[in-house]
Amino acid sequence: MNPTNPFLILSFFIFTFSGKVVVEACNFYISNKCTYPIWPATAANVGHPVLANGGFYLPPGEQRKIQAPGDWVGRIWARTGCRFSSNNIRACETGDCGGKLQCNGLIGAPPVTLAQFALQADKNKPNFYDVSLVDGYNLPISITSIPFSSKCHVGGCTKNLNNVCPEELEVLNDDGEVVACKSACLAFNNDKFCCRNEYGTPSKCKPSIYSKIFKDACPFYYSYAYDNPPPLVNCVSDDYLITFCPSTKWNSGIESA
């Protein structure tokens, strides 16, 4: 995860100073509404367990439940265009983790859309989560609490970002199709785009022409590290639905929130 992401600073504060009360389980329901298979993956922050061995296959229209400890901190993403073999070469067009089906703690290669969670052991306190494009985009994601609450909902995108991705940020597959869109930080490794060094504060790191394209397509996500107001959700719930390609209209290129 990007070290300048406010989500990480907040999760560090929670788990360093709040103390643990009762660690109850939290359920993630991972749903694939894309018209093609995906390979969801998980990676935990240091000191937290890997969920579902780090990755699995999920056909279109299917859903899988995975359980996390009540104080889990980590990320969830989807890999696309995967063909696995035994020689550990890159297996997926996006989000690959060393050519493995089960990432086992490995972080997926960017650019990918990331769902980030910081759960709290004290279930009287809210969990924190967001969707980030700080390292780029491959698929739209929505997050919904169960039962549904509008204040606990992270919506999807209004546009397919891969369709409007600037050429210099595009990631192409072997057929020349745009399968992901890099962030400006990932593409150019520039301090201004990466919010680091002299640009490492909210007052110095401002939206760029590229982050504005991301924000226009996906207004509910982090478009760069110091996005303001922070699109960070806090919600008390033990169950969350994480949906890839959440709208039935998505596969025609239009995604509803």
TrEMBL record:
InterPro entries, A to Z: Osmotin/thaumatin-like_sf (IPR037176), Thaumatin (IPR001938)
UniProt family annotation: Belongs to the thaumatin family.
Signal peptide interval: 1-25
Disulfide bonds: 34-245, 82-92, 97-103, 152-235, 157-218, 165-181, 185-194, 195-205
Biological source species: Centaurea solstitialis
Keywords (A to Z) from UniProt: Disulfide bond, Signal
The protein's name in its UniProt record: Thaumatin-like protein
Superkingdom of origin: Eukaryota
RNA-binding found in the keyword field: no
Keyword Signal: yes
